[in-house]
């Protein structure tokens, strides 16, 4: 199974097949607008701007599973991230990234690339790098700043 086999939801609830990104490199991030790591939005946006011409797509998936750090409704959250952090990469509907009700995409990501403490996602801004064939090639911890991912992104591109 490939990441491109999954369908996710846009903030307005519309289905969006990730197959639309087939042939691109993806950086999938669980985000939150009230998290201590929100300063990473700047670095994620920079990666998006610098490498989108080469096929990198940064995809944000807000989650409210970590100390209620994404309290906004979907469309409010999308607007707040644009206004407050200058985000132009796509943000999708708020979703569960861990537990029995986790989004199937995140279940797949976690199974393919386990973290330091196993499969579970421990906090916001966990990042997954996906190659052009939809394979999950690397997982990065929340504390890993976007600039630290650049060499891995270049190799995957």
From TrEMBL:
<dbReference type="InterPro" id="IPR000889">
    <property type="entry name" value="Glutathione_peroxidase"/>
</dbReference>
<comment type="similarity">
    <text>Belongs to the glutathione peroxidase family.</text>
</comment>
<protein>
    <recommendedName>
        <fullName>Glutathione peroxidase</fullName>
    </recommendedName>
</protein>
<keyword id="KW-0575">Peroxidase</keyword>
<dbReference type="InterPro" id="IPR036249">
    <property type="entry name" value="Thioredoxin-like_sf"/>
</dbReference>
<keyword id="KW-0560">Oxidoreductase</keyword>
<dbReference type="InterPro" id="IPR029760">
    <property type="entry name" value="GPX_CS"/>
</dbReference>
<dbReference type="Pfam" id="PF00255">
    <property type="entry name" value="GSHPx"/>
</dbReference>
<dbReference type="GO" id="GO:0004602">
    <property type="term" value="F:glutathione peroxidase activity"/>
</dbReference>
């Amino acid at each position: 199974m490939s990441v491109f086999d999954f369908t996710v939801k846009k903030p307005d609830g519309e289905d969006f097949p990730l197959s639309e990104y087939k042939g691109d490199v993806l950086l999938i991030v669980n985000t939150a607008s009230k998290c201590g790591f929100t300063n990473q939005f700047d670095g994620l946006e920079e990666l998006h701007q610098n490498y989108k011409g080469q096929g990198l797509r940064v995809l944000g998936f807000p989650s409210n599973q970590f100390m209620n750090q994404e309290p906004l409704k979907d469309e409010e959250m999308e607007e707040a991230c644009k206004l407050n952090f200058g985000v132009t990469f796509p943000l999708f509907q708020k979703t569960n990234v861990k537990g029995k009700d986790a989004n199937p995409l995140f279940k797949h990501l976690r199974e393919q690339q386990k973290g330091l403490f196993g499969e579970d996602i421990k906090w916001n801004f966990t990042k997954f790098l996906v190659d052009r064939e939809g394979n999950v090639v690397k997982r990065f911890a929340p504390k890993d700043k976007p600039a630290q991912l650049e060499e891995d992104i270049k190799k995957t591109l």
